[in-house]
C-alpha cells in the first residue's frame, strides 16, 4: 500500500524537490508552504508521516509539532523535522515536543529516504503486532464459540438419550402387564369346562392383545416424536423428567 507523506516547507523549491524525491520512490505526497496549511492538511489527509521544516514564518515547525501532538487525530503521526540549526538545545527542544527524527539541511536524497523508511518501519511493526494479536483474539473467540456449541449439542444429545431410555423403560413396564394377563388367560383357558368361561378368557386375550398392539404403536410414535426440540417442550411441561 502506497504511503502518504505530508511535506511542510516554506521554501517552494525545496518543497518541490522533496516531493520529486519521494515521488520517484513511489510515495504519495501532499504539501503545504506554511505551518497553518500544514496542520489543516494533516487533519484532512491523515498522512502516514510528516516532514516539517522548523524555520517558517507565522507558525514554525515547533508550533506545528506541538499542535499535532495535542490533537488526538494527529498525535500518532510520525514527524521528521527539517532544520539548518544543529545546536543541541534546538534538537532537545524538538524531541521534547514529540519529534520522531531530525534531518539537517542540506541533506541528500538517500538521507531523507532512509530516515523516512526507518520511521515508517518502526510504525508498521507495532501495527502488524496489533493486527496479529487481534486476528488471534478473533480466532480464539470463534474457537470458544464452536466449543460452546459442541458442548451444548453434546449435552442435548445426552439428555435426549436419557429421555429415550426413560420412555422406553416405562413402555417396557407397561408392555409386561398385558403379557402377564395374556399368559394367565391362556393358562386358565386350558382348564375351563364351560363355554361361558372359555368366552370370558378369550375376551381377555383379545383385549390384552389389542392393548399390546396399542402400546407398540405408541412406542413407534414416540420414537419419531422424541427429537431434541420436542424433548425440550416435554421437559417444559413436566411430561418428561430431567436425567439424574
TrEMBL record:
Domain (Response regulatory) ranges: 4-120
Keywords, comma-separated and alphabetical: Coiled coil, Phosphoprotein, Two-component regulatory system
Coiled-coil regions listed in the entry: 133-160
Record-listed 4-aspartylphosphate modification sites: 53
EC number: 2.7.13.3
UniProt xrefs under InterPro entries: CheY-like_superfamily, HisK_dim/P_sf, Sig_transdc_resp-reg_receiver
GO molecular function terms noted in the UniProt entry: phosphorelay sensor kinase activity
A UniProt-annotated Pfam family: Response_reg
Catalytic function, reaction form: ATP + protein L-histidine = ADP + protein N-phospho-L-histidine
Electron transport is among the record's keywords: no
Name listed for the protein in its UniProt record: histidine kinase
Species assigned in the record: Nostoc piscinale CENA21
